[in-house]
Write a structure and sequence with these properties.
Layout: E1 16-20, E2 29-34, H1 38-42, E3 53-58, E4 61-66, E5 69-76
Parallel strand pairs: 1-5
Antiparallel strand pairs: 1-2, 3-4, 4-5
């Protein structure tokens, strides 16, 4: 069950290297660098084929790779609202009808 007082919404925008300052509001995100233009990064995403997603969560840093390309890199400095443990979820955003499939999901504990 989620505690709505600590609900986390947005950590980053795609193609950004950011520091998350306070409570995940868009206005509190400090973009420290760009990982490339959104249009150029989209060229690495397969529209009608499988994509690989590799997420590294080490401490308060989260890196999300799609098909081997770093798409976003977040340093979450919100020590009050972040959690170092919890659930892993697969998310689909609101929009037109979409078919989403997942396969070959692996978890590895980092030491």
């Amino acid at each position: 069950m989620q505690n709505t007082n600590r609900m986390r919404y947005i950590l980053t925008a795609p193609n950004s290297l950011v520091k998350n300052i306070e409570n995940n509001a868009w206005e509190n995100i400090e973009v420290t660098a760009s990982l490339g233009g959104a249009d150029s990064l989209k060229t690495y995403i397969h529209e009608d084929d499988w994509n690989t997603s590799h997420i590294i969560a080490r401490g308060n840093r989260l890196q999300h790779y799609i098909n081997g390309i770093l798409m976003c890199d977040v340093t979450d400095e919100d020590s009050v609202n972040r959690s170092n443990s919890g659930f892993i979820g697969m998310q689909v955003h609101v929009g037109p009808p979409t078919k989403v499939e997942f396969r070959n999901i692996f978890l590895k504990e980092l030491k």
